[in-house]
Amino acid sequence: MTDQSIPSRERSTGSPLVKRGLAEMLKGGVIMDVVNPEQARIAEDAGAVAVMALERVPSDIRKEGGVSRMSDPEMIQGIQEVCSIPVMAKARIGHFAEAQILQSLGVDYIDESEVLTPADETHHIDKFAFDVPFVCGATNLGEALRRISEGACMIRSKGEAGTGNVVEAVRHIRSINGDIRKITQADSAELFEWAKQLRAPLPLIQEIAETGELPVPVFCAGGIATPADASLVMQLGAQAVFVGSGIFKSDEPVKMANAIVEAATHYQDPQILAKVSTGLGDAMKGLEMATLETKLAERGW
Amino acid sequence: MTRPVTVGVLALQGAFAAHLSILRVLGVEAREVKTNEQLASVDALVIPGGESTTMSMLLVKGDMLAPLRQRVVDGMPVFGTCAGMILCSERIEDGRPDQHCLSALPIVTRRNGYGRQIDSFEAELDVTGLDEPFHGVFIRAPIVDSVGDDVAVLSAVDGQPVLCSHGPVTVASFHPELSGDSRLHRRWLIDAGLLPESLAEASDETAEVTP
Question: A13 vs B120: CB contact, 8 Å cut-off?
Answer without folding.
Answer: yes
